[in-house]
Amino acid sequence: MRLILIIFLTFITTATFAQINQTIDLKWKIGENEKLNYATVMRDIDTSSVEMDFSGLFKSLSDSSENGLKESKAFFKKLNDVFKNLDYVTTLSTEEDGVIDIVMTTRPKENLKEVKQNSTDSKEAEMLKMMQSMNQGVVLRGSVYETGGIHSFWVKSNQKNLIAIFFQLPTAPVKIGDKWPLDINLIANDENFECDSAYKINEVTLTDIKKVGGETVAVLKYNILEYVNGDFNTPSLFGSEGGNKETMMKFSHQGIAEFSVDKGRWITYDGILSLEASGIMTANKKTKFTLIKE
Questions:
Q1: Residues 6+ apart with CB under 8 A from 102
Q2: pLDDT by residue (tens digit) across 147-188?
Q3: Strands 243-260 and 265-278: what pairing?
Q4: What is d(CA 288, CA 272) in angstroms, rounded to the nearest whole number?
């Protein structure tokens, strides 16, 4: 009996050690004529109407145990139920060898109905049709390499940040516990800002590799934080006196996502982008970031 127990414990230990040291390669895998669509949520959360303990989310995200992951997923599932009307749809496709094209367009609101042909006010009808057309426009256009890095280096910083947050992957094979940075800068000040203190955390962590229905799934956790504090020098304009105003800004992005290693795409992606600011601007808001495969 003792021998059987030793053999069993040895097998469990070996299997666990092998999983921890297993290396995987996260790559986008999209067919030549395939259009991969994700319903995309980027919406501010009204914390006064959403009764949730966001501090509990950040606590569970900092816990890499299985219990912490379960609590994080349960939180996002509950929050997803609050957002029924989706704002955008993002389409990924392969336009050239090794490059994935990303196009995000606005999705018409459910309450914005098609204008009837027999409208009594033709000018109003044309205006509404124009608004409908505008609401279906492109809001993001960029690209990543199949191997995970940013390809569209030429886009504006805010667009590059979105591409990195949603679609950037590690460019080298990773194992459980490995961390890597995103190509992202959430805070950007000009020469009028004099920084006194600042710190930054930029890491995505592979927290688990699991089998789901025979499919290899990687679990990723996002921990992005940027903070600055200093003086903003208001320039003198048209005879008015300038001055210094103490300014603080803090961005954070906390999220959890599951990526199919075999199929090369997100299974789930949920995150919360938070902004706190005081001084030259005042802000305290949270924005939900979610991808839902269609």
A1: 90, 91, 92, 140, 141, 142, 143, 144, 152, 163, 167
A2: 999 999 999 999 999 999 999 999 999 999 999 999 999 999
A3: antiparallel
A4: 5
